[in-house]
Amino acid sequence: MTLEIEKLTVDLTKMAAQAAARQQARRDLVDELLETVARYAADWATIAQALTTAEARADPKHYRAARPFAHAQPLNAGIDPPNPPPQATLIAADGSQIMPDRHAAHLYYLINVGGIVYFHGDGRAPLQFTLPVLIYPQNDYDEADFLLSSGKVSIARDRLEIGTLADVAWEYRGGAAPVLAILDQRLLYWPIGGPDAAPNEDVQAWLRAMLKARDAGALLAGYIDRPMTGYVVTLLRALGGLTDPGFEWTALGKRAATGGLADAAIYGQILRPGQRSPVFVNVSPPNARFAEFDRALEVCFFYLNPGPSQGTIARVDIPRWVASNDTAVDHVHTLLVDQCRIMGGYPYVLARADELAVIGHQDHQELDFLIDLNMQKHGVSGSLTAKQASKDWARSGKTRFKGP
Questions:
Q1: What is the mean predicted confidence (pLDDT) over 369-391?
Q2: Which long-range contacts link 133-141 to residues 24+ away (Cβ below 8 Å)?
Q3: Domain extents for the chain?
Q4: Could you report the per-residue pLDDT of 165-178, keeping only the tens digit for each?
Q5: Which residues contact 350 (CB under 8 A, 6 or more apart)?
Q6: Which of 47, 130, 143, 261 sits a CA distance of 20 to 30 A from 351?
Q7: What is the per-residue pLDDT for 386?
Q8: In what order do the strands lie in the sheet with 179-183?
Q9: Residue 312 in contact with residue 343, Cβ under 8 Å?
């Protein structure tokens, strides 16, 4: 059965009309918030008052905001990248996985981390590496947990990514300075449990890896392409709330309170290609737990226009130990811009790490074949479920038997 697109004509028209209306509403909101930015850009006393009021009156379950890290640049500053250092070592790691499949002949999951070491200004070819890890049931009652472990697999992949990144940074602690270790995700990692809880083992493993990168003398950054967070928007809303007697402080942080608007919409109008915003501190209960574990691990961030055009915005997370050093922030900024120029808007080292980590369909098939071959050598048999066998038959281009 093919898709009968003509039956969607009315829905497609409605979809486009609604998108146009939403786009106009978003433009109006951006204009309003840009006025707020211009009004309070360097009014540090009022900014502090807004944040104090918001923290006291907002619902902590939803409240997430941005606090200026320093008062060196106004909120609407577009900071140009300095000249890059003559030499630097960049390390990137990314991960991919094969999820456990209850319909497969044998139960397992696989995590593959790919990474690259790039020698900026050196002339040497980059070094690349992969780290595949196969996980399988150790006993019969362990199998049931495998069938419900998609979240568990993602967390295991995240831990392996940052752990590998920290290990490689440690190996290159004597390399050309600065050493910049980059992840393709946020640094404020909090996958499970309420924000007021103590960090569980997964979060603690993440924190220990961050500390290892710091102890290796590396700079650490998390690069988030097309960020959807609205921390600065929440700050701007709080500033507007100071003069609005009817302002609903308890709604701060909720999507409805920001009109679904992300900070990228604001800085997309402010930052030219290559420029970054001032550095902010992430104001949230999870980040408070990070700071309690070690003050140096408190997560800060800035927004970056990696180019080549106006409006493309990324968020770059950095720990406090990087944010508190102006030269370190400059290095992160300019090296990322240099990497994005290679790829036309995305860091080259992250693109290569992703390419090395990804598990293709043929890789998956070959792994299944080798697993089955080794199982047979040990006298272990396995078979696809009837459902999976039926799908494989149908999708191979064959048709079901329909009778005489």
A1: 70
A2: 133/160, 134/108, 134/110, 135/108, 135/109, 135/110, 135/111, 136/106, 136/107, 136/108, 136/109, 137/107, 137/108
A3: 88-228+281-357
A4: 999 999 999 877 89
A5: 92, 94, 182, 184, 223, 339
A6: 261
A7: 37
A8: 65-68, 280-283, 299-304, 314-319, 219-225, 179-183, 88-98, 109-120, 127-135
A9: no
CA dihedral 335, 327, 128, 345 (to 10 degrees): -20
pLDDT attached to residue 388: 45
Which residues have C-beta within 8 Å of that of residue 243, sequence separation ≥ 6?
Answer: none
- CATH number for the region 88-228+281-357 comes to 3.30.420
Determine the pLDDT at residue 92: 98
